[in-house]
Amino acid sequence: MPGRRGFGDESWRLAQAGDGAGLHRAADLLLEGDTGDLRYDGHRARAFALALEGRVEDALAALNAGWTRDWPFPSAFAADTARVRLLADDPERALQALALATRGADRLDPGVPELLAEVALRAPRLRGRVLRVALGGGTLRLRLRLALAALRRRA
Q1: pLDDT tens sequence across 34-49
Q2: Alpha-carbon distance 62 to 96, whole Å?
Q3: 28-54: buried (b, 16+ CB within 10 Å) or exposed (e) per residue?
Q4: Count of CB atoms within 10 A of residue 70's CB?
Q5: Helix (H, G, I), strand (E, B) or coil at 90
Q6: pLDDT, tens digit, for every residue of 23-36?
């Protein structure tokens, strides 16, 4: 699965840069002649592009279209839902998705700490809820890591 993560990270990098055209091209390439291995990554890239265009419902539908029984894990899917919500400038709903991603998770998408911090940065009124989400699930070590990441970006 390392390849999946690599494509996923590149899609998120393009999304953060606001490169909707690049995301659409990546989605086309990943989905063209798809044998199933890159299906989610293609739909994920498409979802990020649609979110940048303000088409949130279409973005969520694209993300959902790529989800299979095997991949991604529910916590990773919830983290990607949070990414779509952040791209659409909806930090409150992003936080709701992150709450689902962290609840009871022993393992998280590696970007969750950054996403929680981004929610706190974009919507300071949500900082208390961000900390509750960070401390609400997973191992003690994971909860502390999430809380520290969210607090670090407060300034």
Answers
A1: 667 788 999 999 999 9
A2: 19
A3: eebbeeeeeebbbbbbbbbbbbbbbee
A4: 9
A5: coil
A6: 999 999 999 976 67
Structure tokens belonging to residue 114: 């950054």
pLDDT digit string (tens) for 100-138?
A: 998 877 777 888 888 999 999 999 999 999 988 888 777
* Residue linked to tokens 């520290």: 148
* Cβ proximity of 51 and 87 under 8 Å: yes
Neighbours of 91 (CB within 10 A): 23
Read off the amino acid at residue 67: W
Q: How far is CA 6 from CA 1, 101, 139, in A?
A: 9, 20, 26
pTM as predicted: 0.87
